[in-house]
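Quick one, T. Sequence first:
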Amino acid sequence: MLLCTCWLTSANLCVLICRYFYLLFCEPNVIPLDQYVFNTEAHPLPIWGSEADKAVLDTIPEAAKERLRHVMDGYVAQLEEGPQPPPPTPPPIYDRERMNVFAAP
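Structure tokens:
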């Protein structure tokens, strides 16, 4: 039997199967599904604004929180502004000695 030889090796397949079987058959209160979502590899991610998310945020240093707020504020501002037109193309650069035209950097 020929399996995909990229990342789906027998070790990865075993890990994925064990992880999903654990999630299927574990006790319902191990991971509260109202506070977490799972990505495609079954890693639990806290839902934004949930108690689990607030607990994670409490472990982050204050300087990192401030940087995260700054980045998110900029991202939200870009979303509110809507799509921007592309910047104008700069004029070509001429090499006067050889009279060659180079593309702008």
